[in-house]
Amino acid sequence: MKKNNEPRSMPLFRPLLLCLTLIASLGVLSVPTSLADNILKDRPPFLDLPLRCTLGADCFIQHYIDLDPTKAAHDYRCGSMTYDGHGGTDIRVRTLADMRSGVEVVAAADGIVVNLRNGVPDTYFSSYSPEKKKEIYKIGLGNAVTLDHGGGWTSTYAHLKNNSITVTKGQTVRKGDLLGQVGMSGLTDFPHLHFELRRGQVGIDPFSGRDSADGCGDIRQTYWSDLALQQLDYRDQAFINTGFSETRPTGRRDLESGDKAESVLPPMAPTLFFWTYYIGGKQGDVVTLTITGPEGQVLATHTTPPRTRNRIAETRYIGVKRPEGGWKPGAYRGTVLLEREGQTVSDDALIIAE
């Protein structure tokens, strides 16, 4: 049996990038004075979910706005689902395969397109050369659309898929109109939509009504519509991908590709690995991975020591060698249990030996 409790994922870089990057590089410094009467209203917008997916099923919030004015980082619930200086809400899809299939980004509220950028490739920022990183850093939010909602309120939709933007500058859009698709352009290392709400030059957390100078705490005002709030329960952990493969995972990207999981185990496969990729790791977490055979027998299991620090993204795996005579026909089950402060969450996967 082979087992490995070493985290295989790279830390998701912690760029000190705020929406000012987009403002400076796109020129969103002034707003047209002649907006449509039904948009120009001196009140905040009420926002629907800005992409077409089901939160907790095929998309997940990986980062909230950082509301801690110090070098620490806290989301609106004073939790750890953010990083220092993060200025928006990151809603991710599970895999690059999901991204390629096309996940639609839509206007969260009525507005006018005041700026956009297209033409930035969908690439892991960490894969760029040092010189290219300097270039991409200047256009950190990648392909993006900014809408003006009147009254000084704007929303920005960033890291969109290259050549997916469907709107033009000056176009009036309605809530729910298609803007583009989820991508991985600009300064990012995972497929997601970065969404920002701003009033003037100040970023506003749509969950609490606070800005980064306020700190976390009580909810002053939510800017989400009742429809959006039905999906927006706060979650501080989520399993992104859990599955089996004949080969050992090589890291987070391998599990994020969408091509790793296998459903059929050849009888003479030399090894079998069970793995999981999750977000929202916290200090004190204990994770147990187990592989059971067709008759319910435990083939491999491992429990990690308690985590010593928070970590947004984490991968774990265990493996087992082929038994003498090959894999018995039937279903092999992998189970991951994450224990936190007396509570347990789990995920599992199956692979069939024929």
Automatic annotation (TrEMBL):
As recorded in UniProt, coiled-coil segments are none
* Name the UniProt record assigns to this protein: M23ase beta-sheet core domain-containing protein
Which species?
Sneathiella chinensis
Every M23ase beta-sheet core domain range: 86-206
Q: Which Pfam families match?
A: Peptidase_M23
